[in-house]
User: What shape does this take?
Amino acid sequence: MELSPPDGMMQSELAKYRTPLVSRYASPEMAYNFSDMKKFTTWRKLWTWLAKAEKTLGLNITDEQINEMEKNLTNIDFERAAIEEKRRRHDVMAHVHTFGVCCPSAAPIIHLGATSAFVGDNTDLIVMRDAFDIILPKLARCVQRLSLFAENNKALPCLAYTHLQPAQLTTVGKRACIWIQDLLMDIRNIERARDDLKFRGVKGTTGTQASFLALFEGEEDKVEILDKLVTDMAGFKQHFLICGQTYSRKVDIDCLSTLSSLGASVHKICTDIRLLASFKELEEPFEKEQIGSSAMPYKRNPMRSERCCALARHLMCLIQNPLMTASTQWMERTLDDSANRRISLAEAFLTADIILSTLQNISEGLVVYPKVIERRLKLELPFMASENIIMAMVKAGADRQECHEQIRVLSQEAGNVVKQEGGDNDLVERIKRSSYFIPIHSQLNKILDPSTFTGRAPDQVKRFLEVEVKPAIKPYSNKLDEISELNL
Assistant: This one.
């Protein structure tokens, strides 16, 4: 059993576990959003904003110190930071010292009055806000692509299913609108979570702002202004008035619950696509040289939809982490949240990003097979039309009960042909051969027209797309034409 990498590979990245969320799937923008570079440059921005605000309010901080900090926001010596963290066993202080090395004149005032949560929590809030800003246009693009599909197929009749058994008819476009409606709810939920985010701000060790009150010699107005100045520089409209050492971990619940709900929507959509692919009514994109199976060359597996379902399950499960973390934050905070949040927050947004990129790709290339749909309709429609046939016979003067018995007998005979003999549904042919049904023989083609069984579905699609979809995706109109470049 090999327990270590081959000789010469110990330092290679290929000799280490890499999360497939980044190495295999994630978009570059979301991968960067949760990168060390984004994290630690944001820490440095926060320290710079804090220093600027403190200077504005009269503390002895110079323009030279501020300029020095601004020039070194991305000049991060990660090796030095790693050495400092190993020595000090504290990641924030490791980076305070590392930042101070390249900003010697500013070193005395970096992190002045702050606690670790000032950079840690505020950065998490910034990163989650930016992650929502990446996700929302992608979600809107999925809605737009599916809306085009719904519009193009709004009047195409197909079997509808309840209990996964043929029910009455719907249209291909109407079914897509059911998918879209769930995604519109996700847009609403994610926008709400994004807009509800508050900045932790400048609160000190246990949220009392005592350290900043001391810096400003008891002037409470200045402490409040300091909080607002840094909040504004970070691009937030509001900050928490009350917090412990950290912002309430219920914020993480709110954020991840919206993403988990999105996971449920995508899982449902892609499960439907997988089932329809099994029926051969619908297919996701399939490239010319794509291989469906290593052993069965004829297969065209819905692998993108399967990937979405797999990752959506992971996303739905992640909500358990912030629920348990928030419930175990004793008093003003405990540190058992940290290791968990490093994993769960990033994975939730990365996973949501991946399934949306994949769903967009699926939505842009869905293929419908009308002939297959028609053939499947013909197998079931005669049974579904029995009530219409009875109504037509009654209008022609027949007795409703007698007609019901006549068609019941013929339906049972046709059902036996389908189930016992494996033949096609021949109910219509039996009706045509029956002298009892002569009064409506000339009407049968009209009675069995699938479009007469879809109700208001085409109009529902048209109205839904106009009234609900267009307003929901309008805020993202400048990004709707972007095509995913991921190798899906």
